[in-house]
Specification:
Layout: E1 7-12, H1 16-27, E2 33-39, E3 54-55, H2 58-62, E4 69-72, H3 77-89, E5 93-96, H4 99-116, E6 119-121, H5 132-139, E7 145-151, H6 154-166, H7 170-179, H8 188-191, H9 194-208, E8 218-219, H10 227-235, E9 238-248, E10 254-264, E11 276-283, E12 287-294, H11 298-313, H12 321-325, E13 337-344, H13 348-353, E14 356-363, E15 368-375, H14 376-388, E16 392-395
Parallel strand pairs: 1-2, 1-4, 2-3, 4-5, 5-6, 8-10
Antiparallel strand pairs: 7-9, 7-11, 9-10, 11-12, 13-15, 13-16, 14-15
Helix pairs in contact: 1-11, 3-4, 4-9, 5-9, 6-7
């Protein structure tokens, strides 16, 4: 592309991210980029620009050869895939912020780029304004990684900060997050851990050379977090963070999981508060490095989209270096064991999870809590049953790799 020419952008969607990008470009007049066309779905929705500013036919935008770069920023992942995949078939340069789209369709998106010569960048899909994909893709291209983990959802982190720092109830903290625009009216993706799972799938492809299907990742959230659980954390001088993690075992197998986790003051993630995200990348030689930044909001995410726009206009594309180097992608360590806390009203979940090394059983009037050891495979298999039961599961440490208690003070079985 001509670096001296004003580059025209076709924008799909005008919600939080789309408006954030539009606002940044409106303020930064020296940048050679202009949103030329904006495509939205609902003609009746009230928007901050006049109706004449919008079009409602995405195929019309794709066919507009005046546009240099296309930006996808809509919420519907399947509709987004339809638009992005068709754009790539036409050899277009595309930027997206849609983590669910990339997580579920990365193999197809890779194939389309290779076949038709289009380019897709998606830095804004993971950790808001933190340039974590580019860091893993470029800086750590030639260094083996041992682990990538962190807080990847600003909405749930904001809620947890209000609970632990302001002593607010979960429902009050959730409503506050919604009022501030950090959480959707339907917050399930954020608070149940699904959004973090999507982001972890993307990071794992760049960090470890394995394209994970979301169904391969065990994920649990904070939607069933109760007072008993956060009081347990406080008794252990810890807070709770929703942690997404992939690490390699000593056998070279992957452990991908999203779990609420106890985090104490010695942990890198302890000070990541409010809507901020924090990602720790642990290289075999560089050791752990913490990257922290805002993970929610129109401007931080819009800034990540703008970074991709600038990069794609200068000819940058992901090299997928770890994927290219990996002849045999790492297998999942389904027999890997984690130590977890379970609180539920249904004792049969202990058997469903295959919990062993039971200790610290506490029985209340309508529920119990227990610490035990569970395999990754059992976590994946039992997760829907656990969700349906309204049970709460969390890791006892954010690293998921610490030594299990060598000897339980008391081994008990639930009758």
């Amino acid at each position: 592309m001509d670096p001296h020419r004003l580059l025209k952008i076709g924008l799909f969607g005008f919600g939080c991210v789309g408006q954030g990008l539009y606002d940044i470009l409106s303020r930064e007049e020296s940048l050679p980029y202009k949103v030329e066309r904006i495509c939205v779905k609902d003609p009746q929705k009230l928007r901050p620009l006049s109706p004449e500013s919008f079009t409602y036919d995405w195929e019309e935008v794709l066919a507009d050869d005046r546009l240099d770069i296309l930006v996808e920023a809509i919420s519907d992942a399947e509709e987004a895939y339809t638009i992005v995949s068709e754009a790539l078939r036409r050899g277009k340069k595309v930027v997206t912020a849609n983590k669910k789209l990339v997580a579920y369709h990365l193999p197809q998106l890779l194939a389309l780029q290779q076949e038709f010569g289009g380019v897709l960048l998606y830095e804004a899909a993971v950790a808001g304004g933190i340039p974590i994909i580019r860091t893993v893709e470029e800086y750590f291209a030639n260094e083996p990684l041992e682990r990538v983990h962190g807080i990847l959802n600003g909405s749930s982190n904001y809620i947890l900060s209000q609970i632990f720092k302001q002593q607010k109830a979960y429902d009050e903290a959730l409503k506050e997050a919604q009022d501030k625009g950090f959480a959707e009216l339907d917050p399930w993706l954020d608070v149940a851990g699904a959004d973090s799972r999507h982001k972890l799938c993307i990071l794992t492809a760049h960090a470890f050379g394995r394209t994970l299907a979301p169904e391969e990742v065990a994920f649990f959230g904070i939607d069933f977090l109760g007072q008993q659980d956060w009081e347990y954390a406080k008794q252990h001088n810890a807070v709770i963070k929703l942690v997404a993690s992939t690490h390699l075992t000593s056998d070279g197998e992957l452990v991908p999981v999203v779990l609420p986790s106890l985090v104490d003051a010695s942990d890198d993630l302890y000070g990541v508060e409010q809507e901020f995200n924090g990602v720790v990348v642990q290289g075999a030689y560089a050791g752990p490095q913490l990257f922290k930044g805002k993970g929610a909001g129109g401007h931080p995410t819009g800034a990540a989209v703008l970074s991709d726009i600038i990069s794609i206009s200068k000819g940058y594309a992901y090299g997928y270096k770890k994927l290219a180097k990996t002849t045999n992608a790492p297998a999942l360590a389904l027999d890997y064991e984690l130590e977890v806390y379970l609180r539920s009203s249904e004792p049969e979940l202990v058997a469903s999870l295959g919990l062993t090394n039971l200790q610290n059983v506490q029985r209340g009037t309508d529920s119990f809590s227990v610490i035990g050891t569970v395999s990754l495979g059992n976590l994946i298999k039992a997760q829907e049953e656990i969700r349906k039961a309204g049970a709460y599961v969390m890791a006892l440490s954010s690293d998921f790799v610490g030594e299990k208690a060598k000897q339980a003070k008391e081994t008990v079985a639930l009758s």
